[in-house]
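pls ignore typos typing on phone
iron/sulfur cluster + seq
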Amino acid sequence: MTPRVLDVLVVGGGATGAALLRDLSMRGARCLLVDKGDFGTGTSGRNHGLLHSGARYVVKDEISALQCARENAVLSRVAAPAIEPTGGLFVATPDDPPDYADGFAAACARAGVACREIEPAEALRREPALRPDLRRAFAVSDGAIDPWALIELNLRSAVHYGGEALAYHRLVGLQLANGRIVGAELADVRSGSTFRVAPRMVVNAAGPWAGRVAALAGAEVTLTLGKGALIVLDRRPVDSVVARCHPPSDGDALVPVHTVAILGTSSVTVHDPDRYAISPAEIAHLMALGDQLVPSFSASRVLRAYAGVRPLYLPRLDELQPRERAGLAADPAAAEALAAGRIDSRRLTRAHRVLDHGPRDGIANLVSIVGGKLTTCRLMAEETADTVAAKLGLGTPCRTADEPMGGADGGRPYWLGHRLAEREVAGGGDADLVCECELVSAGDIERFLDERWPCSLDDLRRGTRLGMGPCQGAFCTFRAAARVGERAGGRAATATGERGLLVAAGGPSPVEIGRVADGPEPPEPGDGPIGPALVDAALVGFLEERFRGVRPVAWGRQLQEAWFEAGVYLGVLGVDALVVDGQRPCLPEDGRAEL
Amino acid sequence: MTPGAQPYLPPAAAPPLPAAGAAVIGLDVVRLAGFTADACLKCNVCNTVCPVARVTDRFPGPKYVGPQAQRFRSDQARSPQSARPQRVPRSPVTPLSLLEPPARPGGPGRQTAPRPLSPDLTVDWCSGCGFCTRACPAGVEIAEINSRARAVLRVQNAAPRLAGVPLRRRPLRDWALGQTDLLGRLGVPLAPLANAFLGSRRLRSLVQAVAGIHRDAPVPRFAGRTFRAAWRRAGHPLPRPGAAVSVGADGRFPRPDRAVVYFHGCAANYQEPRVAESVVAVLARNGLETIVPDQVCCGLPLISNGYYAEARRKATRNIASLAEWAAAGYRIVTASTSCGHTLKAEYRTMLDLDDPAARSVAGATWDIMEFLADLHESGRLDTQFGSLAGPGGTARPLLYHAPCQLRSQGIGLPALDLLALVPGLEPIDLDHDCCGVAGTYGLKEEKYEVAMAVGAGLFDKIRAVDPARAPAAACDSETCRWQIERATGRPTLHPVEFLAEAYRAAAPSGQRPADGPGPSVDDRPADARGAPPEPGSTASA
Ligand SMILES: Cc1cc2nc3c(=O)[nH]c(=O)nc-3n(C[C@H](O)[C@H](O)[C@H](O)COP(=O)(O)OP(=O)(O)OC[C@H]3O[C@@H](n4cnc5c(N)ncnc54)[C@H](O)[C@@H]3O)c2cc1C
Ligand code: SF4
Ligand code: SF4
Ligand code: SF4
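k done
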């Protein structure tokens, strides 16, 4: 079979990749986007969800600050349904260095980041849960982003312009000839089958995995992976983004996102983007941080904890911008390291970089986009697309900042009460609810399955917020599993790599091809015994995934909930007797000693 | 105090207060009712006890409108105090587009989020009976959460007002239902006219058309004279607001061990002075004088109709008056379970009045039956009741309904125990959750059918007993009495009225009770039990 010819293959379906697919498709290029998992399962699905105003960066990283300030306004306009314009407060507490606030205000003014000092009393009126002994408060334009909604908006728009996107397709190999990529091997991770495409250009938007993707073409991209852990409260003690006015240490802020509030982050360097854990020390650190902002924080209910890795690009010496070079030279330790040929990454801008591997590595049609933020994903896509378009000879300019996504009437910003109001206006009632906490109805589930089948409960979660509320799946898991089972017509199945990812048995067996650069592979279908019903796999996979996030914060009310859930699934349904993938499920009972 | 004499009760001490700032600095959000939603385990127990969800599909139940919906409410949509009225058109169902905040006007420098409005509609079907809160194993204050959400809805749908009176039908109706004081003051002087008006079906249809109060719903008749007026006429003092409490030999009032402070509330003042008279008589029989302090409506009808700010004004005045008595060591009794529950709990849970004065009032307040049961417990209740047996000495069943406001107080069902002391009475607990009316809920045209369905089982149980055997029923709450009476035709009285009746049927007081509880009663100086004043005779004039 001759490989399909494409203009651009985009590798990585995070916020950046999705925005890029849209941008290039709008410019008229024939593009395919692939992700090895579901869209938004990388860093884009594991971050803080803060739409930066730029204020966080004004003091130390003006480039990032300016980009954020600009993109904040752009995204609020073009991606309104994915954004809640909560507004933000930077508060100086007695625990913060008193002079920082002055420098902060001055830097905002210098950088043109909108910022207005308000009386602490006014801040408390706006957010009564804040600690009452605030010294100073600054109102900024921070907001909240739903990354999955943002990706969804981008993908829908891209598809409208002729773009194609494939989830669960991994780039496993690149064929090079004469300094050009001539072919790309894609593996369908659910069936194991592979196929080849022939792209004129390849863009590496693989986030923390960008080094591995570049390595498939023999190029070297060095990333410093900074893990950040976050904890999720079951409700919003504040309706604005609240951050502390002190030197950015861990980017500590409390962000109201949908029905929950997310506090983060810690920052720990890790080496493998697929393997990292959250330590009790990190949780303790975050709880203390929360109490410094909202006094009742540690008495509140914590739903779960999760972590993501920030892919910080470590530039080669010749890639340093003049401004960065000056910054490094100004700091004695960094200057010394620089003289020795090393770069102190803490002094670098957090802004993204577009790497053209033609001049850099002699691979004419490979471009990587590294670093950056969720807030700036559109800008990252624009700059990357400019480079790609120039190489393809496309003259069309970028239009992503002008054309709103989400249609004429869908252009309203997200509002917390939306789901409830929608139900209420439609007559209210809970009879058809599958997930009661997040108000996900049977209709919502069926609509998602219609579009995306086959998919896992975890995909359903990202698409609908199934199981993301306080009960963390206690009631919705079995209800949703039953619907997935109905769809599958009761066919036998097994779970591959990521638990809960479903593979219909009887599909083509996996073929080993190309160089697998992604390190240890999860077991492929066929490795383990095939057998348990699809529903079992869905149920167990999702329960395990939910419980993994609960485990680090299993105390108080969430521990009660975990026991309640254990009663439902272990006591009533006997889920612990199921064998999926040759293993017994890893559910709370196993953790008894720990709990 | 006379040597050897025991006070009938230890003086009420205000509950100990936590040292200021002891717990956490700042607003202790965890303790506020709305934040108890945090504790919800999604167990569904509340859904199984909700009387309204039992009878109508229009109400999705406590779990959905309570802890679940709470997560979709912003601070504005949670707390009536910070909610601001919004312009919403008058259609029965608010279109979604109007519930949403306006699109964010783009451009830099916009600092605050659009203020979201209430996302609620169905929470309006919650009657506020509180069964859910009492059943929740996790301590979620569901009914309280719902009440606040309803109040926000009310603020959102606020109508323009003229001299404080809302100018639209439903808001006017809800506001008027909260004005028990005002209605009483207007209705009592015009009692014959007002009662004739309320008794006319034609005119009630008119009221329904104009004001949305169902024409078949129970509304009480006004008394010819208020209890307070009768009390004053009988020569008793009525302390004025702000009058300092003067106690003891040179003061106007008997000492705290010789008297109790009586919060009569609205119904016993304007509609049922006979209940107040019974309270006074029963207390007198037990050697206790009644002090009638300055007071206004407790505010509950305002709270449940969403008028929190006005309720707060009433509450503040009551607390200012009652706290003085509480501080002087007096017990405060009330025969209205609604008032009792409000004084004890709702000032704190609903109106956020949680200062030491409010807490001391809450700590000193007793339901009259709770108070009498406590007297009995300590052997100080005069149990010389006359028989209330039927003709030929047959014991009569007394059908008793325990109202929700009583159950919310967590004091058991003291009336059942006390009524069992009366010879010839066999109190029977009707054991039905709710009569449906829930204060003013069942009066509203759109709620009437639901309220009647909620109470249907109760009414059936009452109708099943021959009126010849059980001529009257008993219930501690006035609105429930009116509802039961209206639905079944069976006269329904406060339990204290039966006790007063039984005392009247007995030999005059002063004799040693046959089953005398102990020497301490006899040890009391005679003046402690002295001859009861006779307010009943004057007040019933
Ligand atoms: C803890 C934390 C908090 C953060 N908070 C914020 C914040 O509040 N605001 C903000 O603006 N930014 C924040 N960020 C930064 C932001 O999340 C990231 O910069 C952004 O999501 C990166 O998106 P991306 O699309 O570039 O990468 P990713 O989302 O990681 O996407 C890369 C994708 O590539 C796929 N992939 C990898 N290898 C292959 C392959 N071989 N074949 C196919 N697909 C492949 C992966 O599955 C993945 O989906 C935070 C980051 C972290 C870690
Ligand atoms: S207060 Fe009563 S009516 Fe309202 S939800 Fe609770 S049980 Fe139901
Ligand atoms: S009874 Fe309490 S814990 Fe159970 S669902 Fe209702 S509110 Fe939640
Ligand atoms: S109306 Fe009566 S029984 Fe019904 S909810 Fe109230 S007090 Fe309870």
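Chain B touches chain A through 57 residues (CB under 8 Å). The CA atoms of residues 457 and 512 of chain B lie 44 Å apart. more later
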